[in-house]
Amino acid sequence: MSDGDADATLPIVLTNAEVHAGDLRILGPISLTVESGAPLILIGPNGSGKTTLLRLAMGLVAATKGSISWASRSQPPESGRAIVFQRPVMLRRTCAANLRYALSAAGVSRREIEPRVAQLLGLVGLTSVADRPARRFSGGEIQRLALARALARQPKVLFLDEPTASLDPGATKAIEDIVRTIAASGVKVVMATHDLGEARRLAGEIALLHRGQLIENGRADRFFASPATEAARQFLAGELLV
Predict the structure, then answer these.
(1) Cis bond leading into 29, ω under 30°?
(2) Contact, 83 vs 239, CB < 8 A?
(3) 7 — pLDDT class (breaks 50, 70, 90)
(4) Pick from 148, 202, 150, 152: which is nearest to 172 by CA?
(5) More confident residue, 228 or 2
(6) Would you kindly state where each structural domain of the chain is located, as residue ranges?
(7) In what order do the strands lie in the sheet with 40-43?
(8) Please, are residues 29 and 17 in contact by the beta-carbon 8 Å criterion?
(9) Angle in degrees, CA 88, 91, 93, rounded to 5
(10) Which helix (H) or strand (E) holds 33?
(11) How far apart are the first and last CA of the chain?
(12) For position 41, what pLDDT does the model report?
């Protein structure tokens, strides 16, 4: 294996993967392949398993049954992945200092840190507030800083857990614009959302989950124009899945 393959992550392949909490199965069995390309958007009712699937694909939880592989390996690589949770926790430092810490933790050399801080601040539109305490930020600013902090790891795959939940339309648009920029740079985005409008705007591929099961998976345009399952039709119509 060459050094260039050392942090290879894609494809991520789940084969009949299940996650249990004690005797309770909370996800699966799910078979799904995450490949490079446009964003994969996970949708489904609350409690459908979206967050658990993100954590499984990230390597934060292990499959109880079935298997998961990253670039044909059974263990996740040491790098190449990052995740932003729905409620990110900021350090008691300025915005820029949060990024410096993340870059240092990612192994970036001292001479490269300040240029990277400037680059990341510009990417997420926080240059003007670089010296403000991060914990005083609005919800939208915190999510933008969390995205910048995740990008400090230079991931090939970025997992996002409902990054626009509870944000106003302006803050939501700012996050969506950043996600588009990230995806256009070649990073694979795998994002959970409860917002069907957002899914339509961002998705290249859709995965619909319900009660821990993968109900439907495929190209976003086909899914929204002609869903293949009755459950998907009901969900798109705003009907409660039971």
Answers:
(1) yes
(2) no
(3) low
(4) 202
(5) 228
(6) 3-236
(7) 81-84, 157-161, 188-192, 40-43, 205-210, 213-219
(8) yes
(9) 135
(10) strand 24-34
(11) 47
(12) 98
Strand partners, 206: 41, 218
Mean confidence (pLDDT) of the chain: 94
Tokens of 174: 């700012």
Q: Which two tokens stand for residue 229?
A: 């399952």
Q: Determine the Cα–Cα distance for residues 204 and 185; give it in Å rounded to an integer.
A: 15
pLDDT band at 2 (very low <50, low <70, confident <90, very high): very low
The domain covering 3-236 belongs, at the CATH homologous superfamily level, to P-loop containing nucleotide triphosphate hydrolases (3.40.50.300)
Q: 64 φ, ψ to 5°?
A: -70, -40
Instruction: At 213, give phi and psi (nearest 5°).
Output: -110, 145
Percentage of residues of the chain with pLDDT beyond 70 = 96
Residue 129 is encoded by which pair of tokens? 């507030």
164, pLDDT greater than 80: yes
Nearest to 209 by CA among 19, 9, 60, 64: 19
Q: What is the largest CA-CA distance in the chain?
A: 56
Read off the pLDDT of residues 99-116 as tens digits, 9 standing for 90 and up: 999 999 999 999 999 999
pLDDT digits 0-9 by tens, 16-37: 999 999 999 999 999 999 999 9
Task: Specify the DSSP class assigned to residue 133.
Answer: B
Give the 3-state secondary structure of residue 89: coil
